[in-house]
Amino acid sequence: MAIDLASKFLPYVDEQFTAESKKSLITNNDFDWTGAHTVKVYKVSTSEMNDYDRPGTGLHWSRYGEVKRLDATTQEMALLKDRSFTFAVDKLDADETSGSLEAAAALARQLRDVVIPEVDAHVYARMCEDAGTKPAAAALTASNIYEKILGAGQTLDDALVPETERYLIVTPAVYLLMKKSKDIVMETNIGSDLRLKGVIGMIDGLTVIKVPEARLPEDFGFLLAHPCATVAPTKLEDYKVHQDPPGISGSLVEGRIAYDAFVLDNKANGLYYQAQG
């Protein structure tokens, strides 16, 4: 005789592991998209230096040199990402799963596991694609990773990128190479507020951030970034939970987010992207 053993379901949801967004550290919101779909930024040229013609024997009417006209072009930034989601939570499903399918918790899970990873992946992809310096792909090892990082820092120095607030973004695999490198001594005395944002240490004045490989471009090695180079606006975040809307006995959840990321042309040298080969 078959016996059906009793089963007990606990009010517990086996949540997926997730990682919070770090993009607020490595990007900026210096421009305002309120009331506009597109923002244009002027790029103004400069004039070269001349030897002052003190005797007045030159070919130009001005002793300061030939008068040049400055160029004023624009970079146009239009938000292209307008994304949405929707799902329903049946009233009985919510009740008979001990509240595990409760709409507000499901919405928080959607943001944490779906929305944030998508936004992050787009931002990192744009930063890597439009980086001002992209050397040839190279195989990163424990013996050369420090030299590669130092070379990236030197490139930013030569481009006059501010020496403070530089961030080094690495994958867990590259971080492991750094830990194995005999040349790297990392300062790990980091405040809890920064650790919550993904900061794991400091190396030669660089703030090191570890990002899951799934949110980064394929063959990602490391990215050295200054926040001034990338604008990452979120123009709209609209999330709603409708109780018992027409046609549904339960909750209807809807969400919409309009976002994008742009690398400023005149600050692209604040990004150094090293791909792995």
Could you describe the 3D structure shown?
This protein has 277 residues and is α+β, with helices and mostly antiparallel strands. The chain has one domain (76-275). It is built from 6 helices and 12 strands. The protein has helices spanning 23-26, 91-96, 103-129, 145-158, 172-180, 192-196, and strands at 38-44, 72-78, 81-90, 167-170, 199-203, 206-210, 220-225, 230-231, 234-243, 250-259, 262-263, 271-275. The chain has a 5-stranded mixed sheet, with helices on both faces. Strands 3-10-9 form a 3-stranded antiparallel sheet. Strands 1-2 form a two-stranded antiparallel sheet. The longest helix is centred in the middle third of the chain and has 27 residues, at 103-129. The radius of gyration is 26 Å and the shape is flat. 25% of the residues are buried. Residues 3-17 have low confidence and may be disordered.
Helix/strand/pairing class, anyone?
alpha+beta
The number of distinct helices, counting runs of at least 4 residues, comes to 6
Portion of residues within helices: 10-25%
The ordered H/E elements are HEEEHHHEHHEEEEEEEE
Mean model confidence by pLDDT: 85
- How many individual domains? 1
Indicate the overall shape.
flat
Share of β-strand residues: 25-35%
Major sheet details: 5 strands, mixed
